[in-house]
Design goal:
With about 280 residues, the protein is α+β, with helices and mostly antiparallel strands. The chain has four helices and 15 strands. A hairpin with a 6-residue loop joins β7 and β8. The longest helix is centred in the first third of the chain and has 24 residues. The termini are far apart.
């Protein structure tokens, strides 16, 4: 597998990178969360869900991605948490804001004006009492093309197809296969450089939660108490990407559109619980 950048969609080299902020635990391996820990994660995840819902309701043409970043940081701190992303491996903002052909890790900027017809990916995390929540949405700004709307719809459907496979005793490959099959059946490509990940005390924990069938990563059996950030990234054209000179922003090589959705999900004995579920707010 190819690993191209550090970031919030984990790649297989993320856990090897130095200079993590002090709040990031050095614990390794897959952690099963206790009931008290899960209550904290539910709160952290609810903060994330609230911020993303508010951004989706307030974004409009003419705003900049820096405006959204300021809103996110203000709201995360007002709710008693700190932004998970800010200063994580040097990232300068509280959200990743990626427009159109930007795949992941777009740096918010006052120079990036949001326009009608854009596909905007907003990814954010909140750190509350020792635990992180993490989620991403794609927003259609105003009326978008039919092709863009389909890409966004299929990306969200692929996320839920993967989540539906979550249950104690099942395997990571079950998630990957469901995401890949739905994506390819609709004519889109999975970005393979970046994966989902465990989440908890660390923003990125084991295991890597991949979105395609592979023998290059361990096929872990799911256990109750695991908390996973599941996050398929779909491209309308080539699956290949490149990183811009800012060393963060990843774009499609052919300038085609990209879409992403992500939830923090708890594995339970009889299924799953979506901790970042915005519909329950």
């Amino acid at each position: 597998m190819k690993a191209t950048a550090t970031g919030f969609c984990m790649n297989i080299l993320t856990k090897l990178l130095p200079h993590q902020p002090p709040r990031i635990s050095r614990k390794r391996g897959i952690e099963l969360k206790s009931p008290p820990e899960l209550e904290i994660m539910r709160h952290a995840s609810r903060i994330v869900a609230t911020v993303l819902k508010e951004i989706s309701e307030q974004v409009q043409p003419g705003m900049t991605t820096a405006d959204l970043d300021a809103l996110a940081e203000q709201r995360i701190r007002e709710m008693g948490a700190t932004p998970s992303f800010k200063n994580y491996h040097g990232f300068p903002a509280s959200i990743c804001a990626s427009l159109n052909d930007e795949v992941v890790h777009g740096i918010p900027s006052r120079k990036k004006v949001i326009r009608r017809g854009d596909l905007l990916k907003v990814d954010t995390g909140a750190y509350y009492e020792g635990f992180h929540g993490d989620s991403c949405i794609t927003i259609a700004v105003g009326e978008v093309t039919l092709a863009a709307a389909k890409l966004m719809r299929v990306a969200e459907e692929a996320l839920y197809k993967g989540i539906e496979q979550v249950k104690a005793g099942r395997m990571l490959l079950d998630i990957a296969a469901a995401v890949q099959d739905h994506t390819e059946a609709n004519g889109f490509k999975i970005v393979e450089e970046f994966t989902g990940h465990g989440v908890g005390r660390n923003l990125h924990e084991e295991p890597a939660v991949f979105n395609f069938r592979t023998h290059e990563l361990p096929n872990v059996r799911l256990k109750a108490g695991m908390t996973l950030a599941i996050e398929p990234i779909l491209n309308a054209g080539s699956r290949l990407t490149r990183t811009l000179s800012d060393r963060w922003t990843v774009v499609t090589v052919d300038r085609a559109l990209s879409a992403q959705f992500e939830h923090t999900v708890l594995v339970t004995e009889d299924g799953y619980e979506i901790l970042t579920d915005r519909s329950r707010l």
